[in-house]
Amino acid sequence: MNPFLGSVFWLLVTLGVLVTFHEFGHYWVARRCGVKVLRFSVGFGRAIWKRVGRDGTEYQVAMIPLGGYVKMLDAREGEVDPALAAQEFTGKPVWQRIAIVVAGPGFNLIFTLVAFWLMFMLGKPDVAPVVTAAPQSMAAQAGIHPGDRLLAIGGRPVATWSDSMDAVANAMLGREPLAVQVRDPDGRERALTLPLDRLPAGQDIGQYLDKLGLKLAPPPAVAATVMAGEPAAQAGLQGGDRILSVNGQPVADFAAFSTLLPAEAAKSPRLVLAVERAGKPLQFTVTARMASLEGQPEKWVIGVGAPQMEAATRHYGPFKALAASFATTWDRTASMFNMIGKMLSGQASTKNLSGVIGIAQVANATASMGLPWFLEFLGLVSLSLAVLNLLPIPVLDGGHLLYYLIELVKGSPVSERTMIAGQYVGLALLFTLMGLAFYNDIHRMLLS
Prior knowledge:
Elements: H1 3-32, E1 37-52, E2 58-72, H2 94-122, E3 130-133, H3 138-142, E4 148-153, E5 156-157, H4 161-172, E6 178-183, E7 189-194, H5 205-212, E8 214-216, E9 225-226, H6 231-235, E10 242-246, E11 249-250, H7 254-267, E12 270-277, E13 280-287, E14 289-291, E15 299-301, E16 304-305, H8 318-345, H9 356-369, H10 371-389, H11 397-410, H12 416-447
Antiparallel strand pairs: 1-2, 3-4, 3-8, 4-5, 4-6, 6-7, 9-16, 10-11, 10-12, 12-13, 14-15
Helix pairs in contact: 1-2, 1-9, 2-8, 2-10, 2-11, 8-10, 9-10
């Protein structure tokens, strides 16, 4: 699928699922509390589909998919039929109104737990955190060597590359030295410190990761497969041979071999490969040929396949997956509040905010990686919606919750004048955040 169309499609899927689940939380609890629901809308603006249910609620899908709402019978919005007074929202006890408001974020939290649980049940394909460092990078200066395996970051064990990068990215927000435990290919363990305090202020995580220079180590220069009838097989190479050099030039890993081979073949297709087989050095003369593989442009090939990177899939049974889901949800929630706190204090840059464009791009990328990756993405966005909606900003659920908590303390509702002023402040804050996130998305696109 075209990347643009794919991003739009998976964005609509993401927002459709999560907004429906969020609003259903408000709707379900409101109905249980005896409040009449007038409209359940996924999206804003003009309806593109609607119908009236047997309960009298109007269900609709609207044109602007960036949210949704549940409209309840509310005396603040007009005169209420005396026959329906018992079903009016503001007449309900404050604890019921609190329950209705909290239900939306609460259902997002439930969705997150279920999404993570399914992800661990299915098993999210990942790779082991065997790393290298870009030359002269911060990671190289800290002592990361090619082939080091990350064991723990910040004192917490890591088993996969994505877990490792999540831990590093979260630590970057505070720009403080980060303890790392590694094991080299010979089995020796050592403790290192990544000097994240040297990172410049005011940049986003992507820029910090570039400066850190920590990368997955490419697979070794081993001929994992040698295709029958191809130049390498005809010359005598076998699967499992370790390639040491091409035309006398040493090869560090398979990525280096893949770069060196076409460069040397362009000079002369006749190549001299030094390999190691069962501990013995051997030499072969291979004549490369030009070929187009899987519809790609023609290039020099000899018929040698690269080894796979070491897999590290977290795949659990139902009960262990549930425990992992709760643990992951707790860690992600703490990370989100940590990021919000550091942004408010100025320790982390607001450039880390992403908007609709960023969400669409990640939605498309994770969907193409498989269902477990997309489930994790859905869970993270759902958790973000829960956290965002609980912030004490008027117009959001957290703002209404704040009003009702004040009402509990003072024994009477917040004045209408205060609520109206709060709505204006909340809208200004919300549009500022949305504008900033949209600007960040555009800026990243222009730089990429």
